[in-house]
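quick one before i forget lol
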Amino acid sequence: MLPRTMSCPTLIDEDPAALRAEIERLKGENAQLREREGKDIRYIREKVDQLLATIGTAPLKAEELDDETLLTLDPIGIINDAFVQVLDHLREANRQMSAARDEARAVLDTAATGILVLDRRRRALTYNHKFRQLFLEEGDETTGWSCREKICGGSSPPPVCVFERVIESGQTEERNDWVFEDRCFQVAASPIRDGEGAVERVVLAFSEITDKQRAERQLLEAKARLRAILNGIHAGVLVIDARRHVIVDVNRSAAEMIGESEERIRGSACHSYVCPAEEGKCPITDLGHRVDNSERVLLTADGRSLPVLKTVRPMMLGDEEYLIESFVDITARKTAEEGLRLALSEAQDARTKIDGILSSVTDPLFVADLAGRIVLMNEAAGYLLGVPRTLVLGRPLAAVLGDTALRSQLEKTLARGEEGERFDFTLPGQGERDGTVFQGRTFPLRGAGGGRSGTVVYINDVTREREVERMKSEFVSTAAHELQTPLTAIFGFAELLLEQEDLAPELRRESLTFIYERSEALSKIVDDLLDTSRIESGRRLDLHREPCDFTRLLKDVVGPYDLRSSRHRLELDLPPDPVELPVDRRRMGQVLENLLSNATKYSPEGGVVRVNGHLENEFYRVTVEDEGIGMTPEQVERVFEKFYRGDASNTAIGGTGLGMSIVKHIVEAHGGKIRVESEPEEGTRVVFRVPLGPGASGLSD
C-alpha cells in the first residue's frame, strides 16, 4: 500500500472510457480461456471414456471426478498404465489357454479310447489320434465331414444313434452293440452346452470291445459246460460266498435233495439248508480249517432233517473266496449205524448178547472204556490188529495198538469226548505195502442211566471206496478234457466258416467234415455216459435184435481203421460164408469199435492188429489181438470196472474209462461172455463170443 500522503494517478482518474474498454477486453479473453478449457476437459473426458470402454469399464461420470481434479490428475496416463497391465494379463491368459489346449490335445491323443467331437449338424470338429487309427484312412479330410457318411456308411442314421438320442434328450447316452467293419464298440455320447443351456456339440467316445465280447461268449460256454458236468454229478454241490455265507450256485442233485427250486436256493444263507452252525463258528472261515469232512444235517423244504456226509473246501475265483460244498445222503448208513449203536447199548446188560452181536459183525469192532482200556473186541478186530482177542481185554490202547495212527486218533477222540467221528488210517505192514485204507468210526457207549460209559470203534476197509472216489475224480477231469477237445475244434472250424464267407469249397468241405467227425466223437462220449447211467440205475440196455451178417459187420468196422491208421496193419481172418446172428447191429458195432480203438491206442508204436471170427459150437467167437504195451495182472483184473483206465498217467491216450465196462454189459446182454488176456509189453488179446440164437444160452431179451 502506498502512503496516504502520496498520490498515484490511475486509469480511472485519467480515462474512465479506456478503463471500461480494458475490462471488456479482459472479459473477452477470459471467455476464450474458459471455452478453450471446456474443450480440453471434454477432450480429456472423451479419451478417458474411450480407454475405459476398451478395457470394458463404464464411462466416467462428472460427479465421480470434477473438472478441477480431472485437470490436476493424469487420468489418461493412469488408464494407459492399467490398459498395459490388462494386455499383459490377456497375453498371459492366452499363453495358459494355449498350453492347456496343447495339454488337452496330448491327453486326447494318448487316450486308449477313440474320441470324436461333432456339431449339431454331425460335422466333425476334432478327434484324437486313436479315433483316426480306428476309423479313418490316409488322405481323409481333417475335419468337416459327416459322421453318418464316414463311419456309419450311409446317409440314413443307424437304428439306434447315440448322437440323435443326445440331441433329443440332452443327456449322456450309451450303447454296447455298435459294429464297424466286424468290430464291436461301446459308444458313449455326452452333450456340450452353450451359454443358454442348448446342446451345441456332442462328444463321442469309442471303446473297442470285440475281444471282451468274445471272452464273454467263451466264458458263457465254459459255464454251460461246467453246469452240465455239475448236473451230471449225483452228489449235491453248493457254491457259497465265503464272506457273506450266501449260496450263489447249486446243482440239480442238491436242489432235488433239498426239495426246492434252484432259483429259490440261490441267494439263501448256507445255514438255511446245510450246516446250521452257530454264527461265527464256520469250520472254514471262522475256525481256520482248510477242509471240513463231517456228517451234518440237511434241512429240506418240507421240514425234514436229512443226514448227509459233506465236504467243504475253500476256493479262490478271481479275487473272491468261495466255499465248494458237496454232500451225499447217508440216511441208509445212519440207520445202520444207529441200529448198531442201539444194539450195543442194550448189550451192556447182557454179555452173551454182546458176544453174539460182536460175532455177527464181520467188520473189525472193539469197545474201549473211559480210561482207554479195551473191554470188548470181535474176532475180525483181533485178526486185523494181529493180537489174540482173549489177551487184549482190559489192556490199554497204547499196549494193544502200539505207535500207530489208529491209536493216536482214538486217544484224541476219547480226550475230546465227541460223538460220531470218522477218520481214515493205515496199519503198519498192511496199508504201507498194498495201499489198504481203513476207516474208523466212533460211537458213544452209554449206560442204563444215559451217561457215557465208553466208545465203540467200528473199522471197515474203505480202500475200494477211496479208489472209486479217486477214479471218479479222474473221470470228471478226463471227461471234461474229452469233451473240451472236440468242442474246441468244432468252435474253431465253425468260427472259420462263419467269418470267412469266401472260403474255398474244398476247405469248406474239409471244415464241415472235421466238425461232423468231432460231433460224432462227442456223440459217442455222450452215448457212453448215458449207457453208464442206465447200468448204474440197474436198467438193462435196450437191444433191437435182428438178423445180422456178422462177417459183414466185422468188415465194415475194420475197414475204416485200416485206412485211418498208417502205423497199424489190420489182419482179418473170417469165415468165407455169411454168418447171420440175431444181434443188435448198432450195439455190436459199438463193441467192435471200442476193442479196435483200444488196440490201436495202446499200440503207440504201431504193429499188427489181428481180428479173427469163427464159429465155435453154438457160439460165434471174435478175437481182437494187438502187439501193444499190454497190461499187468492187476490191470487185467480191473479192466471192466467203471472209470478204470489202464494207464491214467499217460494223458496222451484219451478215453473216459467207461468203454470196456459198457462192452461187457453189451456182450452179456446178448447172452455172451468176454475175457481179456495180456502181459506187459507183449500185447493184449480180447475174446468174446455170442450165441448163434437167443435160445442157445438160455438167455433172451
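fyi The first strand starts at residue 114 and ends at 119.
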